[in-house]
What does this fold into?
Amino acid sequence: MITAYTDGGARGNPGPAGYGVHVLDAEGNTLAELIGPLGHATNNVAEYSGLIAALQWAVDHGHDHVRVRMDSELVIKQMRGEYKVKHATMQVLHADARRLITQLDRVTLEHVRREQNKVADGLSNQAMDLVEGKPPAPTAPPPPAAAELAPRAISIPRPAKPAHARTSLPSSAPRFDFDVD
It folds into this structure.
């Protein structure tokens, strides 16, 4: 089972909007980070768009069991049928999400507190920044790969022996040279 944390927001509501999705495998390793700049929209449109993006990613990548965690209680309750979907735009997004769910074997929707959704929140803010024309936030450079840190070749010469000791070593004594490619 994969877990997708989703978030969406709009600055000004409506305003510059976007969503973010953080997809993890069963061991907690990141499989994908998605952002979606939406232009001018509401926060609910952005929240639904994040849910749809997560479900579409799961369908596209062959994951049949998906846990979606999001901090939008409204979207979760609408998807569960606890709240009616009255707005026409929301009805279309709701129908898109339901259609994607039918393509999966199991989908679990869970409400989480905002503090538990920080990565997706950060991604949605990146999407909103793009809508506003802000440059992407600088990120730390990735750590160098182990191969980049390892020397290409190491040669360790055999220590010199005193003259009287040289005759005691057989000519087939092992050398201490190491070559690493």
Strands lie at 2-10, 15-24, 30-41, 65-70, 106-111, 154-155, 177-178. The mean pLDDT is 85.
